[in-house]
Amino acid sequence: MKYKILTIIGARPQFIKFAAVSKELKKIKGIKEIVVHTGQHYNKSMSDIFFSQLNLPTPKYHLKTGGKSHNIMIGQMMVKLDKVIKDERPSLVLVYGDTNSTLAGALSAKKNDIAIAHVEAGVRNYDESMPEEVNRYITDRVSNLNFCATKNGKNNLLNEGYLKYVQYSKIFLSGDVMYDIFLDTVKKFSEIKIKKFTNNIIHNDFILCSIHRASNVDNPKILKEIIDSLNIIHNEVKVLFLVHPRTKKVISNHNIHTEVILKNPIGYEETLFALSKCKYVITDSGGLIREAYFSRKKSILILKTALWPEINEEKCSLNTEPKKSNILSSFAKLKKLNSSFKKKIFGKGNASSIIAKEIKIFLKRNI
Length: 367
Ligand code: UD1
Description:
The protein has about 375 residues and is an alpha/beta fold. About 50% of the residues lie in helices and about 15% in strands. The strands form 2 sheets. The protein has a 7-stranded parallel beta sheet, with helices on both faces. Helix 6 links the parallel strand 6 (about 145-150) and strand 7.
């Protein structure tokens, strides 16, 4: 084996992205992939289910660093990753998205002078209070290969002086690996196998909802504003709320009154199935908002600024602040939106193969 790639993942959306790229890396001779799970997400429904549904290999390393404050989590990840990197001496470290696992993986590689590839680079929403925004720009800045899912991501990096001042960092417009795996999965999922989870809801129109961002849930007053608005919307269209553990804690600790249908997190196939059957999506997830677009569903993103502005430009999604009146008026507007889902914002479904090929070229030239 000529080249060793160390893939670092740890949070729910990263398992999905890893599934797409890993499949393509396997097709390339001379590359061996070693996988590290940081343990950031650890519940069965937040981690194991993705490994079984997507046929992912058991990671060689599991760092068990979840359930801690951000600094402690990142610090512990870095201590453990430092040893893994020193033991494995990979040719390249591969990271995904914008979580604490992404940042810890990229910094640990940089401090060991290992090349870094970052999938989903260039995402910005210019809100520094979001921990993800910091993770994004630091990871982009230390990465040698930055793979952008959309033109907007690439432009963000160019506007920040990449190529001009950050010369060692190469930028690629690869398309979105989440779109690749979405296309792959919807082709083959078995409706019968996964139908049971939504019971009778799928017979009616319903809104698929998930809220988990620290800025929306950690302050119970803000979460209450969001849930109050969902309770009202629920009287008109049923709301199926998939409750992240972070959100669940705040709802129960503060006795927030809910009328919506609450459900624990579900697997990847079930999510795509629910998306295929729902009428609208309300979320603060950068992943679900894209999957809503792939599934041709109109959506509301409960964040001040867009994560994927191209979806808003196509009139398929609205952004709103986490206030009851804003959410309700956005919902009224959403219903009237004349949306077009035609534009191929996220590429052609071949992002993973572009990424695997560019990594191979980079390794051959540089390592
Ligand atoms: C993280 C990412 C976010 C991503 C999300 C996907 C960061 C800064 N944030 O947010 O970008 O959109 O994952 O879901 O990395 N918890 C459990 N069980 C689990 C996982 C988490 O109980 O399996 C609890 C933790 O103990 C913690 C809370 O949920 O109290 C938050 O988890 P954490 O990993 O810090 O961030 P997320 O909110 O999941």
